[in-house]
Amino acid sequence: MSGAIEIIATFAAEEQCVGGIEALRAARAENFRVFSPIPSEHIEKAIGRGRSPVRAFVLTGGILGVLTGLAITIGTSWEWNLVAGGKPIISWPPFIIICFELMILFGGIAAVASFLLNAQVPALESAPGYSARFCGDRFGVAVRCDETEAQKVESILGVAGAEEVRREQAQPSATLPNGHDG
Amino acid sequence: MTANPSPARPAAPRLSRAARGVAPLFGNTHRAVLAAAVAAGIAAFAVALARGEAARAWQAYLVNLLFFLGIAQGGVVVAAAFYLTQARWAGTAAFRLAEAFSGFLPLGFVLFWGLYFGRTLIFPWVLHPVAQKAAWLNTPFLFARDGAGLLAMTLLSAWLVRVSRSSQARAWAAASSDIEMPPPAIRRLATVLALAFAAVYSLIAFDLVMSLAPAWHSTLFGAYFFAAAFLSAVAAMALTAVILRGRLGPANAFAAPKVLHDLGKLVFAFSVFWIYLLFAQYIVIWYGDIPVETFFIVQRVYYAPWAPLSYAAVILIWVAPFLVLLGARPKRTPVILGAVAAGVLAGIWLERYVLVVPSLSQHAVPFGWIELLITLGFLGGFVLCAIPGLNLAASAARAELAAETH
Amino acid sequence: MAAAAPEIATPTFSDVDRSVLRVMQTPGLLYWAWIGFCFTLVAIGAALWTRQIYEGMGVTGLRQPVMWAVYITNFVFWVGIAHSGTLISAILFLFRTRWRTAVYRAAETMTLFAVMTAGLFPLIHLGRTWFFYWLLPYPNERYLQPNFRSPLVWDAFAVSTYFTISALFLFMGLIPDLASAREQARGWRRVFYSILALGWQGTDSQWRHYSMAYLLMAGLATPLVISVHSVVSWDFAMAQIPGWHSTIFAPYFVAGAIFSGVAMVITLLVPIRKLLGLEGLLTPWHFDNLAKVVLLTSLIVSYSYATESFMVWYSGDPIEQTTFHMRYFGPWGWMFWVMVACNCVIPLLLFSPRIRTNLSVLWIISIFVNIGMWTERFVIIAGSQSTNFDPSQWGFYRPSITEIMITVGSFAWFLGLFSLFARFLPIISMTELKEGITWLKKALHKDYARAA
Q: In chain C, N or C terminus with fewer CB closer than 10 Å?
């Protein structure tokens, strides 16, 4: 979008950042991305994007693990049905253990894989507005808007207690303008 | 005590229920019904003895004694655990809730001695002593050690509950953003109580349940038994919180979804712990296939009439809570949490029944009006004893929220 | 070696970053000498293992009836050590325990390397190491599949799963910290951290998915911890020999694992705190809480010993009673009493808050616990085999130089890997410490009478 401006505000404290996000949402300026050095429930709630779909992946992975466990154990025992130790060919107590372990294994791998997929990590391009301090000790809010709204957004962020507010020409980039991809 | 950086919240205001315009939790009708239940239980017991069904009467007595003692004692241990792990997620209300059932402990202690009169029908080794185990399994020693253990637990529990209701402990419970451990008086007592619980209730399990089949033994049985008691206490807490929430009006700590969520998590976690302990015993005994160990399991799990009851118990205690309480929303829904908790309690009662009765009644499942009425009698007595504790829990729940809104 | 940093009473985010990242600068000569020493011992162990592969298992002390001894003891010991790391990082995460933040990264690292150490031993013990893959199910021309009714196969699945999940969990936790390290690094380190950090920038979208994935992994790792050491204990409990066949083994071994593991965390962290100048972040409060976990698990282990002894007597089985009599009073009986002293008696000192926060004394106690727990594994594993059913089969075991040096090499392998990690990757989680910084401040203000 030509003429688009990126406004980047730096906050020193989590509460101020949360305040800024809430003020932005109240003013219907939803096109923003938040940087944070720590995971924050408050920030996540303020942005209000709902729960991550990673859960569904993990549940699927876990169920797949159980089914794979059953398939491997029952399938191979049936195929090569030698009685070992006087135990029945299909004996559920040992098979449960294998199913359990595979449930955890597949669920865990699903968690990591779905995280990488959904968060689009490894990220080859830098997110607009990123500054090195956002991985250290500062919170950041990067808002993309028109020239006309820039003044309003800057004042909202200033009132919320931003330590520093600066303006940048928005770079057209391959990633979507707002941080809410996936 | 070191200086407290954050100011402690004021102690819970002790306005009477009438002054706050709230209907009493247990009115005269309630008490009358409970008393009638107790009377019915006693009558059923007496009639069973007179009619020559004394064995059934004593079996029901033992099962119920173990079940309700487990809840009452488990509750106090839950409070001790909360103190030791600095669990202040519901302020004072959680502690009062855990301690609510402790009123039954003295009655339970007295009822334990009642077993003496039925000993010939309960303990097979009284009439048929087992030579190798006679030094351990004999009437005087068993009653002495179990009596002493239960006495110690009753006294320790009463002491802990009293200290826990003191203003110092309540101030600590209310200061949830603090880093300090509870005051020394209560944390030392909580430690001793928790250790004594593990020791005494393992002993109770070995003596009152395992000895009913004197040939059998399992090293994990003691821990399994007291873990189930702990679970029953947690489930009772969850059920009570759900019931009180409905009866206390909108502004009370048990109405907070987060509190129900945490109680639900406890029920979920300990039900999984229970199935783990059950499986740990089962797989070792199954794999070793040693007759002196397997007969106990085979009788209860492989053949009718006991097998369906065992499966029912597992479904109620583990399968239902696991499937239903896995997500966050069901844990926060009072009706669902309450139903699952009630199911867990029923399951644990059934489990105690399946542990005790097959040793004494090999082929038939004794269950009829005798067992039902005796169970009702115990339930009535249990709730009657718990009334003061439940009232305290209710007032703490209301005060908790009142203090928070200041 | 970094000079001791001044303790900052009210640390900020950047203080945390600085304290941790300072550790990751170019290490001195003494450090490299230590690494060299460790890997020399590893090389010796590896050489003796090579000899064992070439000459056969006869170079060990394994003789009938004791066919599982030092190698399996080491395996169980190291898997046990690994468990406390996951307990601290996953289980205490679910409980939202405050004191976990400063110690969990070191504990989780310890887990990973302990599993890697443990995983060596089944391979070493195999003799024909090159056939290890027969334990895994894969299509083959021999019409053979693993016998899923065998506890050893459960072990293969459990330990492999544990290794994978621990590695993934550790790596997930590292990502935000690596991003922080990346920003302040230069040269080859910057490239190294950039690659590992996967371009993490802490956007809300990344955090949202990350938090959910991390929470779920913690939720998965929790039952995994319990199940893995239960499965390891069932290697023994599934047998019928007295001393092994006992239903309490699963929770008993899990408690013992946490016991030895948390003691090992203390053993590692007390010197690291001094050597790497982390006094401002690892406070006596953290060690106080670690010591309480040690005390609790010590009591559980004592309960297990008592219950087992009681049940042996109660069962009236003459074979069991003889086996245990030999365990207490036989030729290796002194090991049993060493074990009781180290595991049951000495940790009772931890009831005293002054001892719990006196880091030198705590460190010594943790060493005793490690000795005691290794001895316990040996007493159970080797001891139970040596005197069971038929007295004509009795035989006592003596470790050979191969087994001793491989054991020493395994400790060196673990310590060497851990030391490498500590210098090149963040040994304390900056992210979580920042998240819980109010609690760190409270801990620094907490008045302990005597802190080492």
A: N
User: How many angstroms separate the CA atoms of B168 and B324, rounded?
Assistant: 39
Residue in chain C nearest B277 by alpha carbon: C251
Looking at residue C181, its amino acid is: A
| Boundaries of domain holding C220 | 13-445
pLDDT tier for residue C437 given thresholds of 50, 70 and 90: confident
Q: Is residue C255 situated within a structural domain?
A: yes
Please list, residue by residue across C142-160, b when 16 or more beta carbons sit within 10 angstroms of its beta carbon and e when fewer do: eeebbbbbbbebbbbbbbb
Q: What ipTM was assigned to the predicted interfaces of this complex? A: 0.92
Average pLDDT, integer, range A18-31: 87
Query: Cβ of B287 and A86 within 8 Å?
Result: no
Selected for mutation to probe chain A from C17, C190, C206 (highest A CB count within 10 Å) is C206
DSSP state of B10: P
Shortest Cα distance, chain B CAs vs residue A94, angstroms: 8
| DSSP state, residue B1 | -
- For residue C148, give the nearest of A33, A37, A95 by CB distance: A95
Cα B321–A57–C178 angle (5° rounding)?
110
* Cβ within 8 Å, pair A98-C148: yes
**pLDDT at res. B6:** 42
Rounded to whole angstroms, the Cα distance separating B24 from B37 reads: 21
Answer yes or no: do C207 and A36 touch at CB < 8 A.
Answer: yes
Q: For residue A79, what are the contacts with CB-CB under 8 A and spacing of at least 6?
A: C143, C145
In whole angstroms, what is the distance from residue C192 CA to residue C190 CA? 5
Collect the ranges in chain B with pLDDT lower than 50: 1-12, 18-19, 21, 405-406
Instruction: Inspect the interface and report whether the beta carbons of C250 and B290 lie closer than 8 Å.
Output: no
Query: Where residue C98 falls among pLDDT bands split at 50, 70, 90?
Result: confident
Chain C residues bordering chain B (beta-carbon distance below 8 Å) = 95, 98, 223, 226, 230, 234, 237-240, 245-251, 285, 299, 303-304, 307-308, 310-311, 314-316, 439, 442-443, 445-447
| Chain B residues close to A85, C-beta within 8 Å | 287
B363: tokens are 């082929």
- Verify whether the Cβ–Cβ distance A93 to B289 is below 8 Å: no
> Which member of C240, C247, C303 has the closest CB to residue B281?
C247
Q: Which of A36, A118, A124 is closest, CB to CB, to C202?
A: A36
Q: What is the pLDDT of residues C208-221, one digit of tens each?
A: 999 999 999 999 99
Query: What is the spatial distance between Cα A173 and Cα B220, in angstroms, rounded to a whole number?
Result: 63
pLDDT in tens, A40-71: 889 888 888 888 899 999 999 999 999 999 99
CA distances from A33 to A17, A96, C278 (A): 12, 45, 35
Domain count, chain C: 1
Half-sphere exposure for A76 (CA within 13 Å, toward CB): 20
